[in-house]
């Protein structure tokens, strides 16, 4: 049997392809089913063209499946080319064999890249929240005044990060603390994809540092809780995320606003409290009623998304545990000048760049990648987002 200079022959090529297909049998089975589903949907639309405009879910599903369909048939053509090239690897002409060997390496690389990257990524459906903006609620935890000061640091970090992404941001509510720092803050970040990008920031952020008032140099540990809520543009709402509440289910109370130290503000009846009666969710803000309804809507939308996610994941493990907002997710260790994300075990030297907004992206990217891999595993297990 003739061989190329690389030692490859036709039987070896067929053995390689068979092994790759066997190793990816579960993946290929799902891709085939989706190609069949795409063909079935196309047939339905050909029989009834009106479905394209009347069934939005069908249209979105078909759009996603088209990418799978194109990649599948491109991969099939790639496979055919590999088989044709395999036959040339045993040609009597050594020059043809060598050229075929070069083509084989290039074709095999494309073949394996599709199996390892393109097909797995196609298993992940587009996020239903990928167009949403974000509303960040930042609250102090343990640590008293130091917690309030760290809250202020995190607020600045997110504001700076939004600016670096060219996302407009606005502090829609805040309460300053006597002696410095803040009691709480709500930050609005407007930009397509802001929620999906920042959702991993939900949880307890821990800081370990020596307070400016600590004369003995003892390290204090303080915490701040961040809750990232989805924010919709009311002029461009999504059908799956609408109908969150009926205004008749919201009790509206006008209260006397409070200033620093708990004193009543001179102008009374300047604060509003909303209570969504069916869920018990409340919003109290020293601001106009519109802002309070915006926060209420964000909390209800978040509740809906979390509920939908729980229903899909009751029988599975969740690799990124960001849904548990009482869990410590990240530690900012000043003495060692490092930041550690405990969900993925990522530690980065240099706190200043992170709190300045620039260094936050590497954590967000790593968390997104981890989540993406988890979704691929879920799809292979028959669980989809």
TrEMBL record:
One of its GO terms (cellular component) is mitochondrion. The keyword Protein biosynthesis applies. GO terms for biological process: mitochondrial translation. SUPFAM superfamilies: Release factor (SSF75620). The keyword rRNA-binding does not apply. Residues 256-272 form the Prokaryotic-type class I peptide chain release factors domain. GO terms for molecular function: translation release factor activity. Keywords: Methylation, Protein biosynthesis. InterPro entries: PCRF (IPR005139), Pep_chain_release_fac_I (IPR000352), Pep_chain_release_fac_I_sf (IPR045853), Prokaryotic/Mito_RF (IPR050057). PANTHER family: LD18447P. Belongs to the prokaryotic/mitochondrial release factor family. This is Peptide chain release factor 1. It comes from Pyrrhoderma noxium.
